[in-house]
Structure prediction request, 86 residues.
Amino acid sequence: MTCVESARVPLVVPDVGTGPVPVAVSLWLVPTGAAVLAGDRVLELIAGGATIDLEAPVAGRLVVQLVDEDQVVSVGTVVAEFEAIA
Prediction:
């Protein structure tokens, strides 16, 4: 018998049209370990004075938050990983 390990799905800071402006992690809306549906708001970012919501890329569970609130990140940074529900 083989055990199939579920793949983790990253949540990446998208290009929000601000160019090289740093993006600040404002507020985690979902704690680590919480179940989410695809499209649920999980994180608020602030870029150039605008608040941007990041949504869960899949239905599943938030496995790990890779950045802290008030941390400054750039476009392309992986900020969390999710485990998808099959």
The domain at 8-84 is CATH 2.40.50.100 (OB fold (Dihydrolipoamide Acetyltransferase, E2P)).
